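U., I forgot to send this yesterday:
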Amino acid sequence: MNKSRLSMTLMLYLMHYTGLRILAATGGIVMLVAIIDTSELFRRVSNKESVTSFSVLMMEAVKIPSTLPMLIPFGVLIGLIISFQKLRSTNEIVIARTNGLSLLKIATGPIILVSLLSLLALIIIDPIASATRKRYEALEENLFGGNGRNLTVSTEGIWFRDRNENIGMIIHGDEIDTQSLALINPLVYTFDQDNKLIARYYPESLALDEGYWRITGGDVIDQTGKASAVDETIIKSSLSQRDLTHSNKRPETIPLFELWGYIDVLNNAGLPSLAHSSYLYYQLSTPFLLIGIVLIVARFTLNLTSRKGWGHMFIFTVTFCLGLYFIKDLLYVMGSSGRIHPFIAGFSPSFLMIIIGIGLLMRAEER
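Result:
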């Protein structure tokens, strides 16, 4: 082994060694979460005789892939602690250190590994997780009910579904003024209880007041094709302000490679996109987060001068990393609410972990 350079053989060995334990730790965490989720689902359906155990298990099977992006960092953390501690206990780290390798060089292989793992998660796992998350939410709403959002945003504009006790409505507009809750270039279709078309409105102004739509000016065409002018018409609505200002697509249900375009659609429609932007940067910062975890774990588990026991190092390292992870989630919430810029909220915790990790390793080398 060269005293100043990390050999390819050692680097590949460390990648293979840590990779197996990261996969095992991630698998164990996924199984544990799946068991807890399944138990909770059985509790929720305990009063629904029509729901079978097979249906519950199928729902959980659909949900499992959507939990992977959230659980992978924890699998990396536990897998690295186990790997580095075993390498230290078998004196393999002692041999590498006596041949001139620094802790940072020893951590190079695991850093490359987690970088590749995070890219795999972003490119392959994320689209699968988004699709299964969307499917699970649909199954959950069908089973337990829920107040599904009525707003759909696309490149063709904004679409609403609304209904009162007498008629149903489909409403379209190019964009929305979130201050006045008025649609730009609106179009309204009304239907009876048998879903037969009653009329089409082409109003000059369409705004949502408290509990009803106010249609002002423009024309209306009835089912016979007869057109007439509209002075002012009021139609009772079941929508709230939140229904008009929040998209029905949660950021977790949109693949990252589509999310950026969807954010542009929201902005063009005049709708808030902070939650989606924060989620995008939160996910894109995953590679840096995992690199920071490698550096911090390496400092507390590979340091040969430490006299602390395995249990003490495990608890301290997990607590330290989870504390930084909590800060990352806290900043994500602040970014979603507009308190700080989404880019800063998404990337600053991960870069902070890298800086702290490098600083700790450099300090350890000085001792």
